Amino acid sequence: MADTLNQRWAATLVGALVATGVKHVVIAPGSRSTPLALAFADRPELRCWSCLDERSAAFFALGLSKGTQTPAAVLCTSGTAGAHFLPALIEAREGATPLIAITADRPSELHGFGAPQTIEQRGLFGAWVRDEASLSEPFDAGLEHLVAVVARLVHRASTPSRGGVHLNVPFREPLAHPDGLAGPVIDPRAPAFVAAPGVPALAPLQRLLASTSRGVIVVGPRERDDGFGEAVNALGRALGFPVLAEAASNARFGFEDAVWATDALTRSKAFSDSLRPEVVLRFGGGLTLKQPQQWLDACGARVFAFCDDGQPFDPQHRVEAFFTGDVVAMVKALTPQAPRPPGELWSAVQAAQQRVGRALERAPQHLDEPRIARSVASALPPGANLVLSSSMPIRDVDAYAPAGSRRVRVFANRGVNGIDGVVSTAAGVAAGSGKPTVLLIGDLAALHDLPGWLIAHSSRAPLAVVVVNNDGGGIFSFLPVAERTPHFEEFFGTPTGVDFSHVAALARARLHRPSSLDSLQSAVASSLAQGGLHLVEVRTDRRANVEAHRQLNAALVAAVEASS
Hints:
Layout: H1 5-19, E1 24-27, H2 34-41, E2 47-50, H3 54-68, E3 72-76, H4 86-95, E4 99-105, E5 131-134, H5 143-158, E6 164-170, E7 192-195, H6 199-210, E8 215-219, H7 228-239, E9 243-245, H8 262-267, H9 269-274, E10 279-283, H10 290-298, E11 302-307, E12 319-324, H11 327-334, H12 344-362, H13 369-378, E13 385-388, H14 392-400, E14 409-411, H15 422-433, E15 437-442, H16 443-448, H17 450-458, E16 463-469, H18 488-493, H19 500-507, E17 510-512, H20 517-530, E18 533-539, H21 542-561
Helix pairs in contact: 1-2, 1-5, 3-4, 7-11, 12-21, 13-14, 13-20, 15-17, 17-19
């Protein structure tokens, strides 16, 4: 008889625990935990222990962790059973001992309606665990996610600061296979978490990099001012790997070898297929633009990620290993002393990017949003700050602003990518750094943070705010909903009709309204030279903006695919 979804889910979870080094599991009896108990019992690599009391079971698992110096797991059923794990988890946190608490749970449809042995188990242990995850009910497409969650939790339990973690796992009935079988044995590939303070931990990766010339380095948003841009571009040159540097990576502007035309390159199917690497080194956060991220997810390469703060970015679960620690030190350790000549990918990417640059120069220089972004970035003097708002501004700078020779520092709130508080953030960047700062922002985000204009004035920060005013939410015009509902303008486009001269008056900012790309660049340059707060408003049209992007992107793809 075929295995059930519960069996596959449980077998995958148990396989992930085995892959991440768990050797001991303590099982308290119960019904809802049946799929996991059977899956644990079916693994000869695991020593399974039975304990009738959950409190004692958790402390016994704690002792196993201490005695073996490996994280032990403890499993119980749903309801109050898991509450008895708390004393041991408190001791695990205060004593820096890894402990993996697994609670089975009832499915979501039983919660809140008086079903027996059903309590809210998410967040059950509060601050006493280092990390927690409450899974959804089993579904076939979620197996890779399940493996990644287990690997992350074991990593959090086992690395400073060590302690307990909580995994809450709901199951629907039937809980056991009709034949009483445990189900298949599944051995998934779990991503490794490698603390790499020096060369020894990086040695296997160094050997891999030395064996291939088909590699790329991909850099998402990263704000630290620690020499990373210089280091990662030096690594790319030494390995002969192109460095695909996002606008907010702080590895693009001022680094003439950096690849800035990634969006155009990956929009071409023919070129992106030829670009497929064998190895990808990932730095920084998630990529802003959809096309490069989709290419990266589908490229089929071995992917290795480097994490400054131990926070993994891998929503598609493609990363083979996460290296945590001092990223700049790791980059320097990976840089070979004897540089290799540029590889095949390096040469192809640089040639295609030059064609994209020429196509951008030849294109009509209208005052539309792609050219506004490009012009603002090119108007910045060396050493200035550029703050990019979410939605269209950061996307347009990312897609169309070349690396150039002028070093500027880029900031963006890309943790959760919201449009709230962007003016205030830019004012803080300008005031904190004391350097001339330009904020590129849309009209809705600029209005969303009206108090930010007041603090920008009172802080006397050297800030020029370039407001791209298309009277509404321009990014929504790129979505299918724009053509599919009569309610688009009311609920998505949301035009406000605000006259930004009133915003300038509110903030006591000097107002500029350029009508050409040249006058825009002059307004930005003069604003930075004068200091203080300036509002540079550039009017565009939302519907025309969509067509401008389409036409320009088509021209750039044609340039990528041209033979010369």
